[in-house]
């Protein structure tokens, strides 16, 4: 049964020719009640009308023509507890992120260093502990949402919360040597409160498992008062450099 359609604009790319995974998952999650888990079956295309179909049990699927792009369902999960770093500590941590020249997707909407402030989110996490040379501990970054991410009431739209929690988990699965060639495979997000525009937020993240080509990481979004307001678990899949950059669908 058709639930509607979505089009993801070019502003919201991850790889050069497909959507940022977290933003795409957030758009799909809008059709699901409560906390949701979205699995990406292939890179979501940009500037393309895709159909959202309702499934038995309340889940949804996303199709580009006859091609399955993603599926999503309501889910309950236990967040991985991460300590809340202060805003200043997160600012310092971000300064310890890897150099922009080591970024494999520099135009990504969420973490691309080539995006202008106010256009991309420019979230670049780094280790809280300056002696954490292998990024085994918690990574963090500040996030102050721009006005163009909010609804008419000044509250950040849910899809941007999903996006903001996405790429930090990719950093957690990488290292000081730079971003690995990984793509988001699955993301689960629970939001207790969406932040307001210009709210001084902090994002903390940490890898929780690694098995072959698959890595899993958790992330937490903290509001200006230091309280946790959204949680994420993400699974990343290692791919070839060609697939990572979108040369192969």
Explain what this protein looks like in three dimensions.
The chain has 249 residues and is α+β, with helices and mostly antiparallel strands. The chain has two domains: 2-74, Hotdog Thioesterase (Thiol Ester Dehydrase, Chain A, Roll); 87-244, Hotdog Thioesterase (Thiol Ester Dehydrase, Chain A). 14% of the residues lie in helices and 31% in strands. The protein contains four helices and eleven strands; from the N terminus they run βαββββαββαββββα. The protein has an eleven-stranded antiparallel β-sheet. A hairpin with a 2-residue loop joins strand 4 and strand 5. Helix 1 packs antiparallel against helix 3 (158-172). The chain is globular. The mean pLDDT is 96.
What's the structural blueprint in terms of helices and strands?
Layout: E1 2-7, H1 21-29, E2 36-40, E3 49-54, E4 60-64, E5 67-74, H2 87-94, E6 126-127, E7 139-143, H3 158-172, E8 182-191, E9 201-211, E10 214-222, E11 228-238, H4 241-244
Antiparallel strand pairs: 1-3, 2-5, 2-8, 3-4, 4-5, 6-7, 7-9, 8-11, 9-10, 10-11
Helix pairs in contact: 1-3
What's the arrangement of strands in the largest beta sheet? 1-3-4-5-2-8-11-10-9-7-6
- What is the rounded Rg? 17 Å
Give the overall average pLDDT: 96
Structural class: alpha+beta
Characterize the main sheet.
11 strands, antiparallel
**Helix segment count?**
4
Reading the helices and strands in chain order gives EHEEEEHEEHEEEEH
Could you say which overall geometry the principal axes of the C-alpha atoms support? Answer: globular
Q: Low-confidence stretches at least 5 residues in length (pLDDT < 50)?
A: none
How many separate domains? 2
